[in-house]
From TrEMBL:
The keyword Magnesium does not apply. Belongs to the KAE1 / TsaD family. Pfam families: TsaD. This is tRNA N6-adenosine threonylcarbamoyltransferase.
Length: 348
């Protein structure tokens, strides 16, 4: 079965073609990736310091059809080779989701194919199965993106149990807001991480929110505020030496990343212990973070679990994860989960 995947939930237009044959034959799942095309709108939104929903929707409209052509070309497939169309149904920006939903459903109707709405987070959650060292079920997924931070017990395709989540900012959101405080361009997560690499360990005593809360929930808004307080304190000293300012930025970035990573790792360890799972999967945009991967690897060694990562290009939003989740859903439900003709998106 060849599934076309369409992702338009936020500021990336992703289109991909996935062949379920390797999965069905117990071969490595990544062998099913036939072709993909991706356009990121980051440059367009940068001037506004965040995603402008109306601009995002319009750009998805402009891009989606050329990207489909590009993905088909990459996969060396024709429209007539497609067996089903999967699209991101939510959560995300309503207008942006509607573009993908309307496009996917119209195409499916025109080609007389089934269409299936996919939960964006399920796409992220299953994408580690596309990695070189794919995990076995059951596993714990640490899902860290711009909009979500969750710990999930994944027992199989469609079998997910939420163990804990953020009570306020998502991890990626905390990264982006802190990066903005330090004058980095939106979305600053990756740049902040890079800056932190040059920073000094432990110069600032930043909080590790909810580290000892006893549950598996998170909270990151206080950490961001603690950085803001340090920035204001530094500015009030009137320092003008550019080297000293650069050092401050790097050191505060380092301490921010260390605090956030410490909480993510500690709660992941707790989730593994609580469920008896031996496999941890990192998913979502923040999953590209080097410090987090390094800390999880160290923890895995110490506590005897295995850490799995999706390929870095599949950490952030993309069409492959939607095509893949669509294929797995169709197989698991024997096509029972395909959706009707209505443009039913679920922004929340
Ligand atoms: O999963 P994603 O592409 O979109 C959402 O569904 O939210 O995640 C985007 C988030 C952004 O907040 C971005 O700053 C963050 O992932 N991100 C990173 C890194 N790369 C992307 N955060 C920290 N370190 C990185 N290397
Ligand atoms: Zn995402």
């Amino acid at each position: 079965m060849i599934v076309l995947g369409i992702e338009t939930s936020c500021d990336e237009t992703g289109v991909a073609l996935y062949n379920s044959a390797p999965w069905e034959n117990n071969a490595p799942a990544h062998q099913g990736i036939m072709g993909q095309a991706l356009h990121t709108q980051i440059a367009m939104h940068r001037d506004y310091g965040g995603v402008v929903p109306e601009l995002a929707s319009r750009d998805h409209i402009r891009r989606v059809l050329p990207l489909l052509d590009e993905a088909l070309l990459a996969a060396q497939l024709e429209l007539s080779d497609i067996d089903a169309v999967a699209y991101t149904q939510g959560p995300g920006l309503a207008g942006a989701l509607l573009v993908g939903s309307a496009f996917a459903k119209s195409l499916a109707q025109g080609l007389k194919l089934p269409s299936i709405g996919i939960h964006h987070l399920e796409g992220h959650l299953l994408s580690p199965l596309l990695g070189i060292s794919a995990p076995q079920f059951p596993f714990i997924a640490l899902l860290v993106s711009g909009g979500h931070t969750q710990l999930m017990l994944v027992s199989g395709v469609g079998k997910y149990q939420l163990l804990g989540e953020t009570l306020d900012d998502a991890a990626g959101e905390a990264f982006d807001k802190t990066a903005k405080l330090l004058g980095l361009d939106y979305p600053g997560g990756a740049a902040l991480s890079k800056l932190a690499e040059t920073g000094q360990l432990g110069r600032f005593d930043l909080p590790k929110p909810m580290l000892h809360s006893g549950d598996l929930d998170f909270s990151f808004s206080g950490l961001k505020t603690a950085v803001l307080n340090q920035v204001n304190k530094f500015l009030s000293t009137g320092v003008s030496d550019t080297q000293e300012i650069a050092r401050f930025h790097a050191d505060i970035a380092r301490c921010f990343v260390d605090s956030l990573v410490a909480v993510l790792v500690s709660k992941s360890e707790k989730a593994l212990k609580q469920t008896g799972c031996k496999h941890l999967v990192l998913a979502g945009g923040v999953g590209a973070n080097v410090q987090l991967r390094t800390a999880l690897n160290a923890s895995a060694k110490k506590h005897g679990f295995e850490a799995h990562y999706p390929p870095v290009d599949l950490c952030t939003d993309n069409g492959v994860m939607i095509a893949f989740a669509g294929a797995l859903r169709m197989l698991a439900d024997n096509n029972g989960s395909t959706t009707s003709g209505a443009f039913d998106v679920k922004p929340r």
